Each structure stands twice: as structure tokens, then as C-alpha cells.
Amino acid sequence: MKRKHKISERTLLNIKKFMRNRLAMAGLVVSVLYILLAIGAPLLTKTGPADINMGQMTVAPGMKHILGTDKLGRELWSRVLYGGRMSILIGVCGALSGSLIGMILGSIAGYIGGKVDGILVRLSEIFQTFPSMILILIMVSMIGPGVGNLILIFSVTGWMTTFRMIRNEFFTLREETYVQVCEAFGMSKAGIMFGQILPNAISPIIVATTVNVAGFILQEAGLSYLGLGVPSSVCTWGNILNAAKSLDIISNYWWLWVIPGVVISVFVLAVNFLGDGLRDVLDPKQQ
After folding, report:
1. Distance (Å, rounded) from C-alpha 56 to C-alpha 215?
2. Does residue 244 lie in a domain region?
3. CATH number of 192's domain
């Protein structure tokens, strides 16, 4: 009972510490607001992201069209909300799957050690030899663009940070008394790794996943801007920018590139602030 009281008291202190971090709280509020707007897109928009209105082309933001329209008469408000759905989905799924891979490999390397650890560390070093965007471009050219392919690529190229953080945690935790007791009772290695040690090393996974979400959203926007992300028929923040990269639009229709650029920047900043706040609370080195 005492242990439970200590855990709940520690959790309460962490929550209070997080709430005192104004940037982290602002990041949390903005991130949740973006997600709610993306989920509620059908209720908040009168037209779909692909609905064309040739009589309302390139209308500036105003009372009738809150964020204006593009060269095909499509509502930018609708496209930003629906684009956020897909961009956030790609970022979150890529980050979660990458963290899952890093978590499994880091647990194996940190607990078993020896040659297995050496092989996995060398593998992560090979991936980290290439700049992340270059590696992603190589993989996109190999398997092609697409939502599923992009999530797969982010998963394959985004596991190294989580891997190293979990590996380092396991090196410390595997020497704890409760691990030795589990080994003495004949518990399987998988049971010890994933049932006993991993729950005590979960905080690095949360922090790394949060940071990766922001990074993958930026990378999706960059790839789509280059025409290498998802097909142009799929509305994402990157594809909205890709449709507005002509010199004519940049010179005469500022809202078509300024607004989506600001939307992406604010969301990425919010997620980064949230990740920094979580790191300050969950990382023992920051205590």
C-alpha cells in the first residue's frame, strides 16, 4: 500500500511540474485542438477538400471563404482540415511503428548483450550513416510513393533513437534485484524483457515518439512538396503546398502558401514543446 501511495504521489508531482511548464501546456492545447479540428472536419466544413467551384477561383480570405479558395475554387479551410487528418495520421502511425521496432530491438540488445547487441548497434549505425531525408528519398524511389509506403518508410528509418534510449535503460535495469529474482525462478527471457523491465523503461519511448511525430510530419510535407510523398489526389498539408509552388501563386495569391505553411509550423512547434515538457517530466536525468 505504501508503494502505491508513493507512485501516485510521484505521478501527481510530475503532472504539477508539467502544468507549470507554459510552453508544454501550450503545446498540449494546440496539439489537441488540431487533432479535434481534423477529426471534426466533416462537421466544420460545408464542402469536401476536392470539391471544385469554377465560379469561386482564387478568392481571398474573407467572411464567405474563411481561408480563401485555390485556383480550382476549392475551399482552403476544408483542405487544411482534411489535409491535417492525413498528415497527422502519417506522422503518428510512422512514429508509433518506428518506436515499436526500436523498443523491441532495444530490449533485445540491452538485455541479451554480447554479439546480438553488437550486430544491432552496427545495424543502427548503418542507418544513421545516411542523412534521414536522403535515406527516405532512396527508399521512396525504390518502393514508390503512397500513404502506406510512406508510413512503412518512416517506420524503417525512425527506430534508431528509440532503440538507443531503450538499450541504455536496459543496461541499467537488468542489474536490478527484481530481474535477478525473475531469472532465479526460471522466467523466460521474453517475459523478463517485456513483462518486467520494459514497463520501467517506457518514458523514453513516449518522448521519442512525440518528437518523431513532428519530424515525420515535416518530412511528409517536404516529400509531398517535391512530388515524392503521397499522390496529389490525396489531400495532405504537403500536397496543399505542392499545389501552390508556382511563381504566379507565390506572387499573387499569398494565402495559398502562407496559410498551410503557418499551419504546419505551428503544429510542429506545438508537438516539439509538448515533447520537451514530457522529457523534463519523464527523463530521470532531468529530475
Report:
1. 35
2. yes
3. 1.10.3720.10
Q: What is the CA radius of gyration of the chain?
A: 22
Is the Cβ–Cβ distance between 87 and 221 less than 8 Å?
A: yes
Q: What is the three-state SS of 4-68? A: HHHHHHHHHHHHHHHHHCHHHHHHHHHHHHHHHHHHCHHHHCCCCCCCCCHHHCCCCCCCCCCCC
pLDDT digits (tens, 9 = 90+) for 149-184: 888 888 888 888 889 888 888 888 888 888 888 888
Backbone torsions φ then ψ of 75, nearest 5 degrees: -65, 120
Q: Using alpha carbons, select from 12, 96, 7 the residue that is nearest to residue 281.
A: 12
DSSP state letters, 180-202: HHHHHTT--HHIIIIIIIGGGG-
Could you tell me if 239 and 223 are in contact, meaning their C-beta atoms sit under 8 angstroms apart?
Answer: no
pTM of the model as a whole: 0.84
**Which uninterrupted H or E stretch holds 208?**
helix 203-225
Residue with cell 503532472: 15
Q: Could you tell me which residues are beta bridge partners of residue 75?
A: 69
Asked if residue 109 lies in contact with residue 121, where contact means CB atoms within 8 angstroms, the answer is yes
Distance CA 165, CA 208 (A): 9
Distance between CA 145 and CA 157 in Å, rounded?
15
Residue-number span of the structural domain to which 130 is assigned: 14-42+67-286
49 within some domain = no
